[in-house]
Structure formats: C-alpha cells, structure tokens
Amino acid sequence: MADLQVATRPAQDEDRSKANRSARTRERALQLSFLVPAVVYLIAFFGYPVVKNVVMGFQHYTTATFYTGKAPWVGLDNYAAVVGSAVFSKAVVNTVLFTAGSIAGQFAIGLGLAVFFRRKFPLSGVLRSLLLLPWLIPLIVSGTVWRWILDQDNGALNRFLGAVHIADRPGWLTSTALALIAVIIVNIWIGIPFNATILYGGLQDIPEELYEAAEMDGATGWRAFRHVTWPLLRPVVGVVLVLGVVYTIKVLDIILGLTGGGPANATQTIATQSYQLSFQQFDFGQGAALGNILIVISLVFAILYLRANRRAVDE
Amino acid sequence: MTPRKARTGLAITLTMLAPLALGACGGSDSAGDSSTLRVLDYYNNEPDKTVYQKTLEACGQENGVTIQRETVPGANLIAKVLQQSSSRTLPDVLMLDNPDLQQIAATGALAPISDFGLNADGYIKGVVDASTYQGKVYGLQPVTNSIGLFYNKDILDKAGIKPPATWDELKTAAKALTKGDQYGLAFAAPANYEGTWQFLPFMWSNGGDEKNIATPQTAAALQLWVDLVKDGSASKSVLNWTQADVNDQFKAGKAAMMINGPWQFPVLNADTALHYDVVPTPVPTAGATGVAPLGGETWTIPQTGDKDRQAKAAKVVACLNSDANQLSLGKQRQTVPTKTALLDKFVAENPSMKAFATIVQTARARTGELGADWPKAATKIYTGVQTALTGGAPPASALQQAQNG
Amino acid sequence: MRVSRWAYTAIGILILAVLLFPLYWMLNVSLQPGGSAVDTSWLPLHPSFHGYSTALSQQGRNLVTSLVVALGSVVFSLLVATPAAYALAHFRVRGANVVLFGILISQMVPGIVVANALYSAYNDLGLLNSIPGLILADSTAGIPFAILIVRAFMANIPSSVVEAARVDGAGPVRAFRSIVLPMSRNALITAGLFTFLFTWGDFLFALTLTTTEDVRPVTLGLFQYIGAYVNDWSSVMATAVLASIPAVVLLLVAQKYVAAGTTGGAVK
User: Fold this and answer.
1) Domain spanning C59-267 has what CATH number?
2) Mutating which of B4, B72, B83, B274 best tests the C interface, going by the most C Cβ atoms within 10 A?
3) Distance CA B215, CA B220 (A)
4) Which parts of B243-391 are beta strand (E)?
5) Shortest Cα distance from A177 to chain B (angstroms)?
6) CB contact under 8 A, C19 and A250
7) How far is B245 from chain A (nearest CA, A)?
C-alpha cells in the first residue's frame, strides 16, 4: 500500500503543480483583463496627442502646417524664444502664485467644509448637493458673472464694500496689484466643490468605530483628527492635491474670461501665454513648447505623488 | 460580467486605435454631388444667423445648389478652419474675419477669386487690401463697418456742449461731462484684439504705424487715453471692458460718449428714451483726416480639389456681393456696403448710417501693411496700451517695451 | 451645552449663501428686463421671463442631448475605470506605476490637442455628430480621473477581506463584484459625480466633434446667444439656470447614497 502511494505521489504532484501553474496563468490573465480596457482606451485617445504635443515643441508649426503638413524641425529654438521673451519670467511667477494660492485656499476650505458636513444635521444632504452647483454652470457664464461682480464702478462686490465702508472701490480686475488676487479668489471658488466633495467621500469611508475607540482613549477633536482621520485620509488627500496641481496649472478659461491675461500681463500664466501664442499669434510650435514646460512641471508633482504613494503601500 | 464587458470595450477601442495610430490621415473629401455646397461662418446668433441663412439660400437657389451651413461661435472659427485644413475637409464657401484672411491665404488653402473670373473692382480700397495676399485677391467682402464716437444728445444739449471733433475738444468735453457716476467717455481697452481695434483710430489718425509703435505719434495718441483716465473722464474699468460692456454703460447713462460701432444700433434703438447720434472719432487737429479700422467679414473659396464645386462656390460668393445683396445686408445688419458706387444710395435709404458711410471711405485694413504678421503687432499694441493705462510706464516707454517684445 | 443641530444648519445655509452668491446674481440677471448687467438691482423686483421663454423654446433638445451624453459617459467611464482602479490598488501588477504615470500625464495634455486628433479620427470613422462619439470623447476626462479617485479610495479596503473571499473559493471577478464593489460605493458615486460634471460642462468636444445642430449639447447651444457683436445675457443666464435644474436633481439623488462607514462593517 505504502509503495503504491509513494509511487503515485510524484505524478500527482506534477499534475497538481501543472494545474497550479495554469490556474496561476489564468489568474494572471484575469487580473490583466481588469486593466486592459482602460489601458487600450488611454493609448487610443491620449497616445497620439501626447506624442504630437511633445514633437510640436521642436517644430516650426504655423497655420500653414495645418494645410500643408510641413513643419520644419527647429530643435530648441521655440524653447529659447519663449524662455527669452519678456513676459516669461512674469508668467512663471504668476503661475506659481496662482497655483499655490488656489490649491491652498481650495484645499483648506474644502477640507473644512468636508469636516463640517460630517455631522448629521437637518438639510445637510441638500446643502452638500447645492455645493456642487458652481460646477453645473458653464465656465463662460460663471466667468462673465464674476466679471460683473468684480467691476470697479458698478460691481456687486464694490457696492457692498462701499456700503459697509471697508474699501473704496478697489480695481479688482484693473489694478496690476489686485488682478492676480481676484483671479485666485475666483479659482478658489471654483475649486471648493471639487475638494469638499472628494474629501467628504474620503471622510465617510473612515469607520465610526475608530473614532469611538479613540474617544475612549481620550483623543477627541484635533487629536482624533491627527491620529485617526489624517492617516486614513492620506491617499485621498494625495490624489486631490496632485490632481489639483495638474488641473490648476492648466487653468485657462477662467483667466481668459476674467482678464485675458491682463491688465498688462498681471494675470498672464504659462497656460494663458501658451494659448495666446498658439491661437492669437498662430505660432503653435512656441505654444506647444510652453505647454511642454507646463507638463514637465506637473510631472515633478506626479513623481512626488507616486513616490509618496509607493511608500504608503509599503507601510 | 466584467470580462465580457471588458472584451466589448476592447473591441470598440481597438477599432479606434487603428486610425489614430495612423495619425491625421487625410480624409477624402466627401465628393458628393456638386449640387450641395458646404458653408462655414460665425454668424451663430440672431439676427445675423437668419439674415445670412435667407441670403445664402437665395443665392444657392439662383445657382442651382442647396446650401448646407455650419455656424460656430466667433472665437472658435479659426480653430475649426485649422482642423478642417488638416483633415482636408474645408467647406466650399468659407467666411473669414477680414484680418484673418491673409493668415489663411498664406497657407495655400484658398483659391484666388481671379481663378473664377471675379474681381474686386469698385470696392473700397481698404476692404480690398484686407482680402489681398501677395497681389492676389482671395475674398470678397460685401459689407463693412468701423467705429466712431457716439454721444448722448440729451446730456450734451443740457450741458451746452457740441460733439467734439478734435482731441482737445474731446478732452474738454469729456471732463465737463463727468459728474456723479456718469463718466464723460467710455471706450474698451482690454487685453485682447478688441483693445487694439479701439486704439487704432487714435493711433492712425495721428500718423502712427503698426510696423513700429515706439514712435512719438503713437505715444501722443496713447497719452490722450492716459490723460482721459487720469483726470477721471474715463473709468479705469476700460482696462477690462469689452465693446459690449461699453455699450451697456452708455445705454445706462453711465457714460455721456462712447467709442463703438453701428452693430449697437438695434440695442440702443430698443430704448426709446435714449437719444443718441454718431460722429467720426475726433482727430488730433482740426482738419486732419481720421483713419479708422475696417471691420466686417469676407467670403472665400477654399481649395477643395473639385473644380466644379469651386466654380459654383465662386458664383455663390459673387451673388452674396451683388449690388442688391450688399444694400440688403447693409440695411439689415447695420453695416455699410463695400462698393463705392452704392454708398450714396445706401445713405439715402438709411440716414442713420451716414456717419459710418463717411468713416469707412477713409478707413484702413488692419492687415494692409503687415499681412500675416499682423497678430504679433496687434498684441504689442494692446500690451503697450495696457502698460501705460495701468500706470506701469509712461506712454513712450510702455510702447517701446511692447515693441521690443 | 451641546450646540443644537439646527445651529449647524444655519451655519451651513450661511456658508452656502456666501459661496453661491454669484449664482444668485446669475438668476437675478436672467430675470432683468434689460438683459444687461449695469445697475442691476439687488433684487429682481420687476422680473421679465423673456430669457426663460427663449431658452425653453430653443434649448429643450440640447438639454436632453447633454443629459444623455453625460449619463452615458458616467456609465462607460465607471465600467472601464473601476476594474482598472481595483487592479492598480490591489494586484501586484508590474508596471502599475507606469500606468499611473501615464494617467497623470494624460491629465496634463491640453484639451485642444486631444480634440484636434479626435476630429481627424472621428471624421474618418464617421463618428462626428453622434452621441456615442461624444460619450467616448468626453470619457477622456472621466476615465483617468475615475481611475485615480477610485484607486485612492480602494487603497483603504483591507486585503484581508478579499483574501477571505478568495479562500472561500471565489474567483477574482466574483470577489470584485460581490465584495469590493459594494464597499466602494462612496468612491464610485464620487467618481461618477465628477465624470457627470466634467461631461456636462464640456464645451471643447461639443464644438469640435459636431458640425450640425442635430447633436448639440447645451454648452454649445448657449453660444447661440453670444454673438461676435451682441450678447443676449438674459437668455444665456436663463439657459444656464434651466440646464442646471435636472442636474441638481440627479446630484441630490446621488448624494443621498454617499453614506458613512461602508468599509467599516465588513472588517467585523
């Protein structure tokens, strides 16, 4: 009997390991099939544009190119031209201020609102939905309404400030000192719903039991936030911040709608300058060069995010 | 569920992958029968949309073709034209804003109108200049407009002031008319080509030139604007206002005078309590000739590779520019016909357009000198204007900075 | 003394009143008879509904188009993105970081470049002026975003739960469908919400990928009232207000489902 068992075991082992291997391969294939549709979609829809955008930065690409297809290679000339232009340093400073100011404001207020709405109170659901209303309005409409509100002579904001005697008709969109601040405020206004809703969703995923346990250990309020909320919220915070940077750096319509990059380039960012080079001056090569500079800046943040993310996974 | 959906998704996206991988492969033009012509323009809102629809259909019928029309918002026309250029799907008849024609003609996408036996004889010179590239005419423009000085008759009468004709008179009048929340003058100086457009009459009438804006003549024109804003006759908001905003201010009585164009007539006329009139933009000194910029859109015939369709398209363009149509379009759209022979008749039938009929005869095309290089110069102009108006630099150095780019 | 819950409601309403003031202003202008914005009074005391009648009569079909495209895009995006998000969060896939990197890069590309490329492709494939075409194109905003957000939420789902299911004999797909998806309800709703909003507000693809008025989302239809020379702001604002009503209803319904502690129970 024992000999028989010993004799058959190697064969069984082999079969089992073969079965294991094919099960593993099948498992692997199934796992990949989760990813494949998304990857195919991304390559199909983004592959060509990304490559084309990078290449355009090195070409002399004008309106003629659209018709003739000829785009002579100019190497780094486009980059030299845009970096050397008088408005570039201003655009860089404005971009940094605009992005930093917007993200700080949106995130802080968004997080505050998310925490505020965590409590159950009457009408909280309705109010939370209404918070998203700014996103339902086309940007052209919001931009125009804000232009009217911020008008120096007749705008609602200045009428209000005058009535309560806080300030005497500041030129929100016409003063080089204030224009960037005004544009940042409007951008924060637009970004609040995004941050608040996603952070709220993240907060909701933190189990109530953890807070109860912390409370029993004497940690409430700020300490509970630091020890319970923040660690579990980190992945969501990471995504919100990195997406915030990537989206904000690209912001175009709001600035163009409010000030067109003025007055006197006070609100000119790299993104608006890129748009103007391409679509007002028809030098698409230079526009793409600026656009690629923006991508490189965003890439830095993306890499930071991926690093932080990998560390979090390992923890 | 998921794997099946995944497979369908995969199939769909793979079908999309192939052409995208080949890049912008030139789509063959839908060489349908040449009895349907495609038209692209930017008259996407009323009343222009219906006016041109009727006119185009009538012209189509006359020439035995049906019109298939695509309208896009004004700011997006060029983007569409470029997309269609690269996929070789340009329409048979293409409308372009007149300063854009040379840009597009330079790409080779348009056919000279002389290829079809058309010419622009008898048209206002500036209008022809805009539609000319390297000596050949590429488009015909049926109607044009410009800008002038609108004034509120009641306000000026009450103050006993005559509509100003020179810069000095303008400064005095504007100052005298500024009281309370009413400004003497409103104009538009935003950070885009509208700002450039509004500055041109002042610049050109004083001898300034877009080839080099760092000249004393242009600086003097800019000084006028700076003075008006500094002494409070014009609001600082001019830095942000569009011409539509300026019109709103004038209509609401917040400005006694404004620089604007005849397209505002319908809106202003709707307010029966408002009595206004128009004179040419004030000139530097008495007796000088005012030179204003020419507006309006021109109709072109893209190279679609189908001679028959192009010939038919040319006929439609010619029909749009017929005497009858020029007069009719001018009347309906508050614009001025471009054939000089029609001007007297037009003014007789439309007395409200008298001022503009005079203005356009000495007006100038924006691309007349620089052609496809106009956009860079236009950007320099509004940049310099904004720098000076915000107090960033005195006019001469603001313009020099802008000119250096 | 505990703060009454109604105090929170009051604060909430106050916060929203300040935040939504520009929208009130929009409503105000839409009701003004003049159609312009100078000297607009704080309250629309003499309301005029001509903007609304114009909008209703002309934009009805566009509204429906926008709704269909937006909902279609949500469904398609979630179908493609959710499995991918799960794979990136929990499977040890080599090159996961490359995929994430690629997704982030896709968010950095200017939209006009994507639109131009799509125009050529769509023209060749005959997908212009089609609703499926718009759904596919608008998902370029939804899919990358949904993958990133859902993945971040799914990172908090402990692997122990899934492994327990696998030990019980469930395949990866069954485990995904029966265990992971229900626990990711918040993630899916949040991702779906924003995919809807991105698509709803899209103007670029609406403009680029249509050449006739058959399929015209309301963001493009709005421009009928914004001309090269004259603007009819009452109609524009009225259209914006009307267009937001069905969307608000959808948002209200969706938000009800973002409930607390969906991950908590399973650990027990």
Assistant:
1) 1.10.3720.10
2) B83
3) 9
4) 255-260, 276-279, 297-300, 336-337
5) 10
6) no
7) 10
User: Quick one: which of A38, A307, A199 has its CA closest to C153?
Assistant: A199
- Provide the pLDDT for residue B13: 45
Helix segments in B207-306, DSSP class H: 216-230, 243-251, 265-269
Closest residue on chain B to C209 (Cα) = B80
**Domain B148-292+370-404: top CATH class:** alpha beta
Nearest beta carbon to residue A36 from set B6, B83, B404: B6
Q: Which CATH number fits domain A87-314: 2.60.40.10, 3.30.870.10, 1.10.3210.10, 1.10.3720.10?
A: 1.10.3720.10
Chain C residues touching residue B251 (CB < 8 angstroms): 36, 38
- For range B188-200, the mean pLDDT: 95
Query: Do B17 and A44 count as a contact with CB atoms less than 8 A apart?
Result: yes
Burial per residue of B113-151, b for 16 or more beta-carbon CB atoms within 10 angstroms, e otherwise: beebebebeebbbbbbbbbbbeeebbbbbbbbbbbbbbb
Asked if residue A140 has pLDDT above 90, the reply is: no
pTM over 0.95: no
What's the rounded Cα separation, in Å, for the pair C193 and C187?
10
Nearest-neighbour CA in chain A from B36: distance (Å): 23
Question: What pLDDT, in 10s, does the model give residues C189-247?
Answer: 989 989 998 999 899 999 999 988 889 998 888 888 877 666 778 888 888 888 888 88
CA-nearest residue to A312 within chain C is C155
Element (H, E) at C243: helix C233-256
Interface test with A, best of C14, C99, C109 (most A CBs within 10 A): C109
- Give CATH 3.40.190.10 domain extents, chain B: 36-144+295-361, 148-292+370-404
Q: Which three-class secondary structure state does DSSP give residue B87? A: coil
Q: Which CATH number is B36-144+295-361 given?
A: 3.40.190.10
Domain residue ranges of chain C, discontinuous segments joined by + = 1-48, 59-267
Task: Write phi, then psi, for B182 (nearest 5 degrees).
Answer: -105, 125
Q: Using CB atoms, pick whichever of C79, C119, C230 lies closest to residue B263.
A: C230
Mean pLDDT, residues C95-119 taken together = 88
From A129's Cα to the closest Cα of chain C, the distance in A is 5
Cβ pair C156:A139 closer than 8 A = no
Structure tokens at B185: 């003058």
CA B81 to CA B78: how far, in whole Å? Answer: 5
Could you tell me which chain C residue has the CA closest to the CA of B20? C121
Assembly ipTM:
0.86
